[in-house]
Every structure is written in structure tokens, then in C-alpha cells.
Design a protein that fits this description.
This protein is mostly helical. It has two domains: 70 residues, no CATH class; 68 residues, no CATH class. The chain has nine helices and no strands. The chain is rod-shaped, with a radius of gyration of 28 Å.
């Protein structure tokens, strides 16, 4: 999972300078503003478990805060499930270029007949090396292994093994 966000440093310093009752009221204000109990607890020094923060927040009274309460991070950064207002962002992976699909299929068909005892100068051995190099170049550009395997007409496992051995 991604790293959990934390309270701003100046807020942590401010909270640690307060008395116990003031601190609990401030933590309650942070919680009501949308900060999770886990983030609040992990931000404090020393770290506190969520149960402790929950206990403090429940027993604290709502008091007027003389200092602005910082806004919490978007929910998509603090939860594993996207929310309506803050959907999870997905990166778009590049696919295999169309002109390389034909080349991958040709090399794949030849390299399927390659065996370890094949002469290193044979067309089968050359095709096998070229397929590995081309697959590694595509993987280096961020193309997913599954997309390379599909374009070459082989299983994901076969392509993953080729990429891990190269």
C-alpha cells in the first residue's frame, strides 16, 4: 500500500505543546475535520495507537479552536477504496506499438523451435536473442509483460520467464 500521509509538522509541534485537555480537544477538531485516527496517531511523537486516539477524541469536549485546523488529504490517498469525490487514479501503460506486433509474432514463431543445443549462429538462435532483446526494450519503456506476451502470441508465464532470465 502507499505511504500514509501525516499531519503537517507545525501541527504536530503545536499539538505537543498543549496541555492534555487542550490536546484532546485539538485532536477531536482534527478528527471532525476529516483526519483519520490512524493518521493522527502515526503523526504524534511518540506514535499512538488508533484506540488511544479514539478514546481521547471521544472524551474530549468540542471547544473553539483559535488556530485553523489543517484540511485532510483527499480520501483516495487515505483509503484503499476510491470514493465518489476522490477516485483512485490509474496510470495508463503504453501498449505494444502496432509495427512491432508483427515482428514479435515472427520472432516468437521462430524462437519456439529454438533449443539449447542449437548453433548460436542459426536463424532460430538469432530470432530467440532478438525476441528477448525486443521484449526487454519494451518492458524498459513501461509496456506490461502481459501486453508483450499477448502481442507475441505466448503465455504470460513464458514471457515473464524470458524477461527475468535476460
Amino acid at each position: 500500500m502507499i505511504n500514509q500521509p501525516k499531519l503537517p509538522i507545525d501541527e504536530v509541534t503545536y499539538v505537543s505543546s498543549l496541555t492534555r485537555a487542550e490536546m484532546e480537544a485539538r485532536l477531536r477538531a482534527l478528527w471532525k475535520a476529516g483526519w483519520s485516527l490512524a493518521i493522527i496517531g502515526d503523526s504524534l511523537n511518540p506514535k499512538r495507537p488508533k484506540t488511544t486516539i479514539h478514546f481521547w477524541v471521544r472524551r474530549a469536549e468540542d471547544t473553539k479552536q483559535f488556530r485553523a485546523v489543517p484540511l485532510p488529504p483527499p480520501k483516495s490517498l487515505t483509503t484503499s477504496v476510491p470514493t465518489k469525490n476522490a477516485p483512485r487514479l490509474r496510470s495508463v501503460s503504453p501498449g505494444v506499438p502496432t509495427e512491432l506486433r508483427i515482428k514479435l509474432q515472427e520472432l516468437s514463431a521462430l524462437s519456439k523451435r529454438y533449443r539449447a543445443k542449437t548453433s548460436p549462429t542459426s536463424p532460430l538462435a538469432v530470432a530467440n536473442r532478438e525476441l528477448t532483446e525486443l521484449a526487454q526494450q519494451l518492458r524498459g519503456r513501461g509496456v506490461p509483460t502481459a501486453a508483450i506476451a499477448e502481442a507475441a502470441g505466448v503465455t504470460y508465464r513464458a514471457m515473464a520467464r524470458r524477461l527475468s532470465n535476460g
